[in-house]
């Protein structure tokens, strides 16, 4: 008998022995063993079933009639809080977001992490496009195209606004960032899709185009350059520990969680209200030295407690706009990507980042400004125009605006 067998049996034996000793008194349990807790839940359900459904199937109040996103939109239409067509648009967007959620969650398995076209594909903002930037853009464009309601689409990943092809054209404008925060994707950090819907002021039919905009096509461009105050609907879908859609049709901001068991967005956060004041600030402080002295002082005061609340604030910054705004909406406080010496207009794009997020925050009782003006009042000059963004709890944004006004003279603004 070879010496190695002797060694290996001594190695294996202890484990078998240990397992046997541990389990010698335990009866072997069948896979379908029912734990006492589960038994009591089933008992409760059965008694509820008998009591309330006259035997017509299982009855669990909250699960029995969940408000899905589609049902929510239909109810808004029925109470004429939203135009009829919006249900087709929101259904297309929710389908696209479910698809993008699945692509993002499986990116590591399906070789969808990393750069598109080996990093040779640069979008008009000068950013290397990720594979999922390009794919999410296509998914959303197609979904909107087949809604049959879309006239013009403006996307972070499209150099200029594009129309869907003629046979599908409609009278709405969609602006979107198909995969915001995609620089965090390969690290599996939260990302999201941001969107806004406008009514198209002029009807026009054009091809996907490069950079030579024909005069007749200027109308098309014009129909996308609308201020956020004219949004009919706005929202984001966050791809994180859970997939959440936060939406406003102009009557409050509402949160829906994707239930993977049924593949439906279910209303979980009706009428979200941002706290009047928070205790969290969310800025990329690496840019601190590029900021104006007023903002530097404001942040120092938040940290030191020398602010109207007298409390010391904590810093939270994910570096994904959707995730940072979502947390601010729930917990309150202030999020900002201000202008600075390096980027006087900051980094975020007015049309499909700042405006939809500001619309949601205002509908939830918060405020959003570029430091001088309400974001929703700003009329964009170009599709990819950047604007400084400060948004959050009313009292937090008011305090910052107060400091700016007080020091306006000092800054010769
Ligand atoms: O890394 P920085 O400079 O703090 O910028 C972070 C910001 O840039 C973004 O990633 C830009 O978004 P995109 O990924 O859509 O270009 C935002 O999500 C985020 O708020």
TrEMBL record:
Keywords: Carbohydrate metabolism, Hydrolase, Magnesium, Metal-binding. GO terms for cellular component: cytosol. Residues 68-270 form the Fructose-1-6-bisphosphatase class I N-terminal domain. InterPro entries: FBPase_C_dom (IPR044015), FBPase_class-1 (IPR000146), FBPase_N (IPR033391), FBPtase (IPR028343), Fructose_bisphosphatase_AS (IPR020548). GO terms for molecular function: fructose 1,6-bisphosphate 1-phosphatase activity; metal ion binding. Residues 274-404 form the Fructose-1-6-bisphosphatase class 1 C-terminal domain. Its cofactor is Mg(2+). GO terms for biological process: fructose 1,6-bisphosphate metabolic process; fructose 6-phosphate metabolic process; fructose metabolic process; gluconeogenesis; sucrose biosynthetic process. It catalyses: beta-D-fructose 1,6-bisphosphate + H2O = beta-D-fructose 6-phosphate + phosphate. Pathway: Carbohydrate biosynthesis. Its EC number is 3.1.3.11. It holds the Pfam family FBPase. Gene3D superfamilies: 3.40.190.80, Fructose-1,6-Bisphosphatase, subunit A, domain 1 (3.30.540.10). Belongs to the FBPase class 1 family. Homotetramer. PANTHER family: FRUCTOSE-1,6-BISPHOSPHATASE-RELATED, FRUCTOSE-BISPHOSPHATASE. This is fructose-bisphosphatase. It comes from Galdieria partita. The lineage of its organism: Eukaryota, Rhodophyta, Bangiophyceae, Galdieriales, Galdieriaceae.
């Amino acid at each position: 008998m070879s010496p190695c067998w002797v060694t290996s049996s001594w190695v294996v034996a202890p484990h078998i022995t240990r397992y046997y000793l541990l389990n010698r008194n335990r009866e072997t349990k069948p896979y379908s063993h029912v734990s006492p807790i589960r038994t009591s839940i089933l008992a409760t359900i059965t008694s509820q079933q008998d009591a309330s459904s006259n035997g017509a199937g299982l009855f669990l109040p909250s699960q029995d009639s969940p408000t899905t996103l589609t049902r929510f939109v239909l109810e808004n239409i029925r109470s004429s809080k939203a135009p009829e067509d919006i249900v087709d648009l929101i259904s297309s967007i929710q389908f696209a977001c479910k698809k993008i959620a699945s692509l993002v969650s499986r990116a590591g398995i399906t070789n969808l992490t990393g750069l598109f076209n080996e990093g040779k594909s640069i979008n008009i903002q000068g950013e290397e496009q990720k594979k999922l930037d390009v794919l999410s853009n296509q998914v959303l464009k197609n979904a909107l195209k087949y809604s049959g309601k879309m006239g013009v689409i403006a996307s972070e990943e499209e150099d200029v606004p594009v129309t869907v092809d003629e046979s599908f054209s409609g009278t709405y404008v969609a602006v979107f960032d198909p995969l915001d925060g995609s620089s965090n994707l390969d690290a599996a950090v939260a990302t999201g899709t941001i969107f806004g819907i406008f009514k198209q002021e002029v009807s026009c039919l054009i091809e996907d185009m490069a950079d030579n905009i024909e005069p007749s096509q200027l109308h098309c461009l014009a129909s996308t350059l609308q201020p956020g105050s004219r949004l009919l609907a706005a929202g984001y879908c966050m791809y994180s520990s859970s997939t959440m859609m936060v939406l406003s049709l102009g009557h409050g901001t509402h949160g829906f969680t994707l239930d993977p068991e049924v593949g439906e967005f279910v209303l979980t956060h009706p009428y979200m209200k941002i706290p009047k004041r928070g205790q969290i600030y969310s800025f990329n402080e690496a840019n601190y030295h590029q900021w104006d002295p007023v903002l530097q002082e404001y942040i120092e005061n938040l940290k030191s407690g020398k602010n109207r609340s007298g409390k010391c604030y904590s810093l939270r910054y994910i570096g994904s706009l959707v995730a940072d705004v979502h947390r601010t909406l729930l917990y309150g406080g202030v999020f900002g990507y201000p202008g600075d010496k390096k980027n006087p207009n900051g980094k975020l794009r007015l049309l499909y980042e700042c405006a939809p997020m500001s619309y949601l925050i205002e509908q939830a009782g918060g405020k959003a400004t570029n430091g001088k003006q309400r974001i929703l009042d700003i009329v964009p000059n170009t599709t990819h125009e950047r604007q400084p963004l400060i948004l959050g709890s009313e009292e937090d944004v008011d305090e910052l605006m107060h400091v700016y006004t007080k020091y306006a003279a000092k800054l010769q603004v």
